[in-house]
Amino acid sequence: MSAEDHKALIRRFYVEAWDGANYDVADAVFADEYVRHDARGTEALPGPEGQKQIAAAFRQAFPDLRFMVDLLIAEDDLVVGYWTATGTHLGPWATVEPTGRAARFNGVNIFRFADGKVVELWNVRDDLGLLEQIGARVHAGAPAT
To answer: Which end of the chain lies in a sparser environment, N or C, as judged by fewer CB atoms within 10 Å?
Structure first.
């Protein structure tokens, strides 16, 4: 696959899974040995099932989630995606109970391909900004007291 083919597959994943709630597209995008590297701790399963689980849980927390791909850059076996999402916090997210507040946040993903599928993903999302917008108490590493 070419770098352009990789970009097309990542765009498909963003549009179908994140914006359209078609989680099964992860089977076409992610290898069974896929590994996720996240800026924050995660308990995601490996492989396509892990991506399905993450997207479904996020959409449960933000059922009106809208996902826009702002930029895709590809070179060799890497694709970088920058995106913007909006949604209303109507379900539990991590340890935060629903607040009913709307949020707009961004993220960057770096995908590495092998044999036509993603084998690694590095994820950085503006969780601090998201938490602030939904009204969660944020202590930036300091004790809550």
So the answer is: C
